Amino acid sequence: MVEGKIFGVVALKGGVGKTTVCANLGTALAIEFDKKVLIIDANFSTPHLGLHVGIVNPEHSLHKIIEDEYSVFEGIYEHALGFHIIPGMLAPEGLDYNKLKEKIEPLKEYYDYILVDSSPSLNQEMAATMSASDEVLVVSSPDYPTLSSTLHAIKIAKEQGTDIRGIILNKVRKKRFELNPKDISEASDVKVLASIPDEIKVQAALAKMIPIVSFSPTNEVSHIYKKLAADLIGEKYRRSLFGRKKKKKVKEEKDEKE
């Protein structure tokens, strides 16, 4: 049996859209590619992943799993979009973040892909996510301050011996003053996997607590997330004017007519 893979989604600067990336990649892998996916909120100090997918006040959360109040399996929620999630809540001081890997490692037997949303700070929380991950995805925006933070995050990951899959460039406006993917790749010596536009519908989706991949499946941002998901798992993505569910519905209607 082939074990699943854990991707840590990290950034060293808040506001770059790290949690949005985690939620949408998880959704794309589950909906578009029928993968068994678990997303985990390991941002213990500012946990927001649940809010991105409509879970406002969870009874079970990751820090209670780490404190051994219940098993990791009891903390998993099944989402209507097809993925599973372990949400987070504000954790108490003194939590042993080093237990994160111990708690989630056994889940690789049950999931194809696990995405872990980390803290946007250089602290024990981020270190725990990197340690627990097979590969790290670094989220950045195309400006010098964020690039500086991104380079530091990459350095820390390399020092820990964690494989860096690449950089996801988010909130791109295609302005001349922005850093381009080539500049960022050369400065970091890490491949830029995708450039995601700064699209207003992403905020509209967030207001509805639905990832844009599901909220607006034909939006350009959704296509980019699906293509990125395909690249991460070594599959092909065939772009369509229809979302996956819409294509299925069209086929069913056609079959009924025949």
Give a summary of the structure in a few sentences.
This protein is of the alpha/beta class. The chain has eleven helices and eight strands.
Layout: helices, strands, pairs:
Layout: E1 5-10, H1 18-31, E2 37-41, H2 49-52, H3 62-66, E3 77-78, E4 84-86, H4 99-104, E5 113-117, H5 124-132, E6 135-140, H6 144-160, E7 163-172, H7 181-188, E8 192-197, H8 200-207, H9 212-215, H10 220-233, H11 244-257
Structure commentary:
- This protein is of the alpha/beta class and 258 residues long.
- The chain has a single domain, classed as Rossmann fold.
- It has helices at residues 18-31, 49-52, 62-66, 99-104, 124-132, 144-160, 181-188, 200-207, 212-215, 220-233, 244-257; strands spanning 5-10, 37-41, 77-78, 84-86, 113-117, 135-140, 163-172, 192-197.
- It has an 8-stranded mixed β-sheet with strand order 3-4-2-5-1-6-7-8, sandwiched between helices.
- Strand 3 (77-78) and strand 4 (84-86) form a beta hairpin.
- The chain is globular, with a radius of gyration of 18 Å.
- It starts with a strand and ends with a helix.
Count the strands? Answer: 8
- Going by CATH, what is the homologous superfamily? P-loop containing nucleotide triphosphate hydrolases
Count of structural domains: 1
CATH first level: Alpha Beta
Q: Which terms would index this structure?
A:
disordered C terminus; 258 residues; 8-stranded mixed beta sheet; Rossmann fold; alpha/beta
